[in-house]
Structures are given as C-alpha cells and as structure tokens.
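subagent[fold] <- orchestrator: predict structure for attached chain, return tokens only, no commentary.
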Amino acid sequence: MSAAVQVCGLKKSYGGHAVLKGLDFHIRQGEIFALLGVNGAGKTTALECMEGLRSCDGGTVTVYGKIGIQLQSASLPAHIKPMEAVKLFSKWSGAEPDGSVLVALGIREMERKQYVQLSTGQKRRLHLALALIGDPDIIFLDEPTAGLDVEGRLALHEQIRRLKAQGKTVILASHDMAEVEALCDCIAILSGGRISFCGTASELTDRVGQKYFIHIKTQRGDSTLETESIEDTLLSLLNRLKRGGTRVLDIKVDRGTLEQHFMEMTGRAGQ
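subagent[fold] -> orchestrator:
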C-alpha cells in the first residue's frame, strides 16, 4: 500500500526546548492512524508540521494528496451560522460542498443556530464538514471527540469509519485509548520527543508483554495484581488466602487495556 504521509527526521524546538527530536514514520493510504501521547508530548506540534501550518527545524514531511484540517473549538466567529460557514469555506476552496456529507453530519438541522449556540457535538460535526469540503484525500483530526458525551463520540466514530470506507486517510491526535482501540489501524506513541512505538494495538500488547491483571474480591475488600504468569500467580494467591482463612468471593482475569500498555510504554521512555 502506498504512503499518504512520509515523515523523516522531523525536529521542532521552542525557545531552546526540543519538542520533537527526529520523528520517523509513515502513514499508509486509506488507514486510520493515531498519534498518541500524554498532554504536552508534542502531538499537536507534530500534526501542525504535517499539515504545513508550522515550520519544522529539521527533517522533512511529504504529503501525497489533498488535505483537510478539522478546526479547533472557538475557531469560527461566534455569530456565524453553520451554512454560512460552509458557503464561506466552499468559496475559499473553490469547491462545492457534498450535500450527502452535510446531511450525514446533520448540518442542515442546525442551520438556524449561531456558532455560539451550538453544542460541543454540533461544533465537532460542523468542523468535520468544513474539513471535508473539496473532497480531501487526507483528513487531520486533533482530539476529535474531546468534550463529547458517549452518544456524540459514537456518532463521530461512525463518521470516521465512513471516511475510511471511502478510501480516505484519517490522521488523528488523541490520548483516548478506547477511541484508538475502536478506530485505528496503526498507532504511534510520542514520548520524550520521539516515537517510542509504531504499529497495531495487538503489536503494542505483544511488545509490552503478555501481562494479566487479576481482580480479586474477598471478605476483606478488593485488590488487583499484575502478573506475566497467570497460573503460578493464581495458585500462590489462592493458597495464601486459604492459609490465612480469607474467603474468596469473586475472581476476574483480563489481559489489560491498551491504556495500561500505553502508560507502561510512556513510563519506560521517560526513564
């Protein structure tokens, strides 16, 4: 599969502080790619360098296709109406908006409201509609579901999946692990100004290790243990509780979430 974006040796500093220290990765056409990192890791800076909105101090970014960029909140005048914004962006881009996209995102349902009157979810949908004017090949989304309720998040996830089904490349910056697991084909973790991991969610799990979490409920309370050897740990734990006369009420075992693996990875990079 051909590359949609190629990043080689990307560097960026602010006032002598190196934020990006030589990033190397590529994004394939037609995939949903996530750039993950804790707040302040440089996700937005990396995204803006790829978008061409911010100059880099070193390295190269090559984009193969037309891009669309989702606006951040408060990026539009308070009293502009959604369809006025659509017409304005259409004029700037020299392209007519896709009516089916406006319907799918519910833009016409909110056309009488001013921007300041829109809910967070409505603003996010409007921003996505504006990014899609001109039928871009690559769409950049920065924390696309931040501030949304569960229903709003699921609705926006469905729109992102539709873009992928149309062959679009979607690049998002996020710190929402559940979102990444649900949507993304490839994950890059940004930590300490470098890419500490790039691959699939299952590859991240394999790299960190086959860890298990034992959640045990007894008459004395609840506790959670982390282990790489589930059988040995369970036997030892149950024998110890039995000898101590503690009655086990419930035991659950899981392999951990992507968030736990992510924290493990960023913790290692910071050491």
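orchestrator: received. Logging for downstream: DSSP finds nine helices and twelve strands in the chain. The first strand starts at residue 3 and ends at 14.
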